[in-house]
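Quick question: what would this complex look like in 3D?
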Amino acid sequence: MTNVKNSSDAVRFGNTDLPAEQQEALRKAMRIEWATMGFLAVTTTMVFLVLGNSQAMKAAWVEDILSFLPPISFLVAAHAIRKPPSEKHPYGYHRSTGVAHLVAAVALTVMGGYLLVESVLGLLKAEHPTIGGIEIFGNTIWLGWLMMAVMIITSAPPVFLGRAKMKLAEKLHDKVLYADADMNKADWMTAIAAVAGVAGIGFGLWWADYGAALIISASILRDGIGNTRGAVSALMDKRAMTYDDKEPHPLGRQLDEYLRSLDWTRDAKSRIRDEGHVFHVESFVVPAGDSMPTFGQLEAARDACAAMDWKVQDIVIIPVAELPSELLPGPGSGGER
Amino acid sequence: MSRGSILVFLLATLLGLSGCRAYPADPEGTLDRVRGGTLRVGASLNGDWVAIRASGGDTSDKNLRDRDVQGKDAELVRGFAEHLGADIEWVAGTEQVLAEELKHGGLDLVIGGLDDKTPWTTHAGLTRPYVESEDERGKLHKHVMLVPLGENAFLLELDRYLMAAKESS
């Protein structure tokens, strides 16, 4: 365990000292998330002011409100995970990211479902959305024009914020940031759907509004379900995946290959828990011949593994007579199939 | 199709369509029907806003003669009907009866000194507040009229008329 002597402004994840690249990425991510919240405060106010009776606008507005959750989750978690492990929390606070992710995902699911039901009911009851005039600089114009203008103006910035966050999510191996970026990137589609809905009302097609609202609420619900699934399986110690959950994390294979390549080992296999940013690794090694490895050999192997990636620091190496298959299901390493 | 071309297509459709017909349009065509025709107005008794004077004859008839209906709201409606070249068919009743009638297409407009806190938003659309008043408890009321849900061309025409009337008063 490293002794903490860093200056107080150094960014760390519990006991894990972050490399310069990750420190920079984390600071940048926090700045972008604050910027996102500032942007959302402006857009939710603007959209609220022109909300009117359009269900599509309401759905888009609720989605904007819900967009506060991932940045808040990220910032709260980023604060919590700095705490080093304690007697009460021997594994540290890394899981706070997963907890924050789950809370945000459940909120998305509930609100998406609620809006979906409300939109279907509105469609069945054929409640024609009513949008009248609004006075601007002495002229009375149709409020629908203003709605469309606001949605178009507010549609572009999240896409750029999302792209910036996506790069940082990969560097930090942060799934909340990834989910946030993924939602931001798709935000323009919500705006276009809302514009189409309001434009439809203008053409006398009252159902266009509910159609757009259905699309938007379905996308919120889909985000919610996908994120809930991801957050739950992460908390259930699913094997470590890449930041976008697309494939097993290559680190598992690299660790096993390294441990097998040592001249005092015959075989090795690890299981890895993704704690949020950092990995907890248990590596089972079968020594070559019948002799136990020395303390020096074990220490050296542990240090080499930890040096492989900043995410690996909490690693235990367990010498065993043969690999315990009941603890290591599957043919490959922890990180392959 | 790329995302960009979808956008261009959508915008072009919007601009093209908006150029060739009234925008916004009424799903049920209220404005077209009323213009040069008949404006069916529900009047609910309420102080200075809507007063109904029985002028002899058969008072049990719920359809009223034009000169029987007085008050600030009634005057505004008369002006609006004139603006559209329409005759007014007055119907007296309680707010509930009139709101139900409006919801089912039996009326085009309901007045009665209503304000923007009216509970009838499930039955009707509201105009912009066109005048404010203060009651004896010092509470501010922003007055509105009820229109059929979703008849947005009609509503916008009325909103424009009410705003213009507010300015000239």
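Answer marked as accepted. The domain at 239-337 of chain A is CATH 3.30.70.1350 (Alpha-Beta Plaits).
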